Amino acid sequence: MTNKLTSIEELKVEESWKERFKLIQKYFENGSPFKETAEFKSMTAKERGAVNKGILIKIGGFWSFFAAFAFSAFYYLFKGMWLKAIVYTLVLTCFDIVLTHAIPPLAKFSHGYAYAFIFAYLAPFDYYRLKVLKKQW
C-alpha cells in the first residue's frame, strides 16, 4: 500500500486531488465507486457520508464537482478521459431515448441534470483511475 501512496504523492496534480485520491484508494477497490472496501462498509452512514463529501465536495472538490456537473463530457475531455466522455454520452443518450419512448410523459422533462450529476459523481473516481491506475476503463 505504501507503494501506491508514494505514486499518489509523485503525481503532478493539485494537492486537493492527491487528498481525494488517497480517500478513494483507502475506501474503494480499484477506484470504483461501486466497490467499497470492508472498512468503508463497516463505517456508520454519517462517516460514509463524510468520506463521500470529502471526495466530491469538501477537499477542494466543490469547483471540480461544479465544473464536471456544468460541462459534463467536456470536463472529461479536458481532463484527458476522452474514452469515458464518449461512452458515457452515448450510453446516457441511448438511455434517454429509450426511457422517453417507453414512458411518454417523461419526454416533457429534461434529464440533463440527472446526467450531469452522473458525470460529476463519477469524475473523481474516473480521474483517479486515469492518473493513479493509468487506465481509462
Word description of this protein:
The protein is mostly helical. Helices cover 72% and strands 0% of the residues. The protein is built from seven helices and no strands. Helix 5 packs across helix 6 and helix 5 (62-78) packs across helix 7. The longest helix has 21 residues, at 82-102. It starts with a helix and ends in a 6-residue tail after the last helix. 24% of the residues are buried. The model has no long low-confidence stretch (mean pLDDT 88).
What does this entry show, briefly?
The chain has 137 residues and is mainly alpha-helical. It has helices at 2-10, 15-27, 38-41, 45-58, 62-78, 82-102, 112-131.
Features:
137 residues; mainly alpha
List the helices and strands and how they pair.
Elements: H1 2-10, H2 15-27, H3 38-41, H4 45-58, H5 62-78, H6 82-102, H7 112-131
Number of helices: 7
What would you call the structural class? mainly alpha
Report on the biggest sheet.
none
Number of DSSP strand runs: 0
Rg result: 16 Å
Helix content: over 70%
As residue ranges, the low-confidence spans are none
* SSE pattern: HHHHHHH
- Estimate the global geometry from the Cα principal axes: globular
**Relative strand content:** under 5%
Question: Taking all residues together, what is the mean pLDDT?
Answer: 88
Alpha carbon gap, first and last residue:
22 Å
